[in-house]
Amino acid sequence: MYLPNSNNETIGTAATIKELKASNDDYEWYPTTEKIIKAVIDDVSNAGRAARANSVLDIGAGDSRVLEAFKSADGLSLMRFYGIEKAPSHVARWSGDITFVGGDFYESDIANKEVDIIFSNPPYLDYERWSEQLIKSAYATVIYLVLPKRWTNSERIQAALKSRNLVADVIMSDDFLSADRKARAEVDVIRITSKAFKEESYKTSYGTREVGEDKPFSFDWYENADPMNMWFDEAFPNLADLDSKDDYKTGQQKRDSIDDRIYQLFKTTNTIDDLVSLYQIEADEVLSNYKTLNNLDAKLFIELNINLDTIKNTLKERMSSLRAEYWSAFIRNYKPITNRLTRAYQDKIYKELIDNARNISFNAINALIITEMVIKLANQYNEDQVKDFFYDLSNPKSVLLYKSNQKVFSNQEWRYCKDPADRPSRYKLDYRIVQHRMFGLSTGYSSTYQGYQVARVLSDICIIARLVGMKVPSWCNGSEYEHSRINPGERVTVNYHKASDDNDFFVQREEQELFAIKFFANGNQHLFMSKEFALRLNIYIGKLLGWVMSAEEAADEMAVKKSDKQEFYTVFNETQVKQITFSDTAVAGFLTAV
């Protein structure tokens, strides 16, 4: 399978097809023609209140050419662009303002994604099943499909339209004989909207006649029909007669936390298959529990004054929350992510993804693409993570001024400086640092330090060590202290076997101390970094912030002894920002479900 390369360059259709075939990612990708794209955009522009359309979803988005065309369309004010695409090589090249909401269409929960416009150019050989599921699940004002002309004879498509009270109109016919990827296929471009737009009451009472013209539909009057209602009625036919206006009161739903189960799962395995299986078990349990309601007489709900809408919304929210929980657990526990992001930046990235995580199906393909997205974000934060660590440790007692820096820093300069640009500069950190409540650690009621908090700090420091060039293996993360209580006066040490290269982490070598922390009853901690760790950290920061421009200048400013200069020059040249690629994160078994 193709592994995304975090590269957003544009390549031609022929080259893209060749790349897709080489990576076995060619899922009948026949790019939509410019003529078809123009016809769809013109039709949207001709709708009533077209300027109020805000969002568009492309299912099978390919290289995102349709979404890009919508972005630049005159007269529209679309702000949100969503795509579903199975080929990671396509997704890797999407622009940053297109939101990925799923890989495999058949595993994507589009019923929970309300948008104004849905477009899809389905796989030719699977158009009937694809169109049926899309029509039944779509939560949109208008749907555009590119289908073979024989679609009108499809009983499945006609039945799906009837079940949602929708109507399909052909807005144009075309073929792919002169397309970027040629095919002998004659197609209709159809618009699917509510039958309500055809009714005279719409045209006269809510019509959007502008300059004497009838509009085919409107983005203003018609409220999107939620497909969840149809699914719910089919799943629970015995509840169909329940009055939706009845009040519903219920106690708060209780459930066991999944944190412990997921934590134990990642302790024994690091494959996405196992986590997906655990999610599916829990999702099935939720649906099974709700389906038991179908065995009750609908009259009982009326007697109990239970509102059906609340049950629907609760189930919908429950499934959304479950997906969000598992994506959170994935980001916080999957080693290729956690080995490169401190806890603070895991939180930051999770907050950036959480809005869409609730709508993204939790499966192996999506996990592959989400991992790539997280790694892209992580690359943006490499420098920030190291700077935050460096500044958090900086205080008048822990810094050693550069040779050219004669200024004495005061406590107030460190304590009250909020703008990084105004921070004191041109100094290095001592490898021994004493600080009160370092990293936010403090004693509990029993005057001991909680092991899980200490382990989190140790893991963060190991991540910083990797970012500045230390060859620290992934299993070096302080996890052995997670279930301990650290007593005042105790010294916690993190050791590692230094690897000679990136592929040599597990070769046994002489054990070395990476760093240690000693804890005190008064809330102070004493950090001891290995001299190599401190050296690489100081060089990294000096280069990053422009405090030193060459190895010779750095050695002079940091007062390096003459006997140590050759080693210093070597470390200086080695220490640089390392961009993380997806191949760095591969682990055995990750792709087994893809």
Structure description:
With 594 residues, this protein is an alpha/beta fold. The chain has helices at 13-22, 34-45, 65-71, 88-91, 127-137, 155-163, 200-205, 227-235, 259-268, 272-291, 298-303, 308-333, 335-338, 343-357, 364-393, 411-415, 451-467, 531-544, 551-557, 565-574; strands at 55-59, 80-84, 98-102, 115-120, 140-148, 166-176, 183-194, 399-401, 427-429, 432-436, 449-450, 485-486, 491-497, 511-519, 524-529. Helix content is 39%, strand content 15%. The N and C termini lie close together (8 Å).
Terminal-residue CA separation? 8 Å
Total count of helical runs of at least 4 residues:
20
Q: Which strands sit side by side, in order, in the main sheet?
A: 3-2-1-4-5-7-6
Give unreliable regions as ranges: 1-10, 206-212, 243-256, 501-506, 580-594
How many E-type strands?
15
Oligomeric category: single chain
How much of the polypeptide forms β-strand, as a percent range? Answer: 15-25%
- Find the structural class using helix and strand composition: alpha/beta
Give the overall shape. Answer: elongated
Q: Residue-averaged pLDDT, rounded?
A: 78
Largest sheet: 7 strands, mixed
| Cα radius of gyration in angstroms | 29 Å
Q: Which percent range fits the helix content?
A: 25-40%
